[in-house]
Amino acid sequence: MDPFLLSEKRALQFHRVILDEARRTPNLIVRARSRLALMREATPNAGGVFDRWETLLDQPLDAMAAEVLADDPAGGLLRANSPFSEALAPSERNALWQRIGLQQFIGYFRAAAADLSLTTDEQAALTGLPAETVTGWADEAPREMTRGTLDCLRAVVSIDRALCGLFDDGDTRRAWLREHDEDLGGRPIDLLLGGDMTRLRDHLADRVRPLLSARDLPR
Q1: Considering the chain, what percentage of its residues have pLDDT values greater than 70?
Q2: Structural contact between residues 33 and 87, judged by C-beta atoms closer than 8 angstroms
Q3: What is the maximum span of the chain, computed from C-alpha positions, in angstroms?
Q4: Could you tell me if 187 and 178 are in contact, meaning their C-beta atoms sit under 8 angstroms apart?
Q5: For residue 2, what pLDDT is reported?
Q6: Which residue, of 38, 42, 161, 168, is most buried by count of CB atoms within 10 Å of its CB?
Q7: What's the rounded Cα separation, in Å, for the pair 162 and 142?
Q8: Whole-prediction pTM
């Protein structure tokens, strides 16, 4: 990806989460104002964008978010000169990026679950979480997750990717998951829901490996 586009994507992800966090931690706005004052001293010739930030920091969060998260040059300029970027302590910044990573991974899991037509009840059984918690991820990703649940999500994503390598057609992938497999001695979906994910992944890895070319292998 173009480095500029990657930087823009990261800045947008950062500000989506930091503005949401500001709803729970009002002093982030205070800290951003303090940081803005320091930025003015360091770069006095960039007053225009700093003036806009000063106005935005006095507005309700929804109004601020509409401009800061806008997919246009003005929004990009605000994000590139954001007082929020340095308003966090290192530990807070690390926690924020971990939250962003979890949001992205929830997206991968939901895409894999949709591709495999896993029902809400099946997703709940896989994760050990209530069905309403899993469905709630469509509106808001969790702020934290246990290692065990994360490992279950990773397994579903890796199984879906392996099946995509074996079968181009989505209907074929979904049919394979729910039909009896002689080598596995049962239906793959039953192994998945029964917690035997390692065996299922190893089986798929053995099937995918002969299909890899030299350029698919790590260098």
Answers
A1: 92
A2: no
A3: 72
A4: yes
A5: 41
A6: 161
A7: 26
A8: 0.69
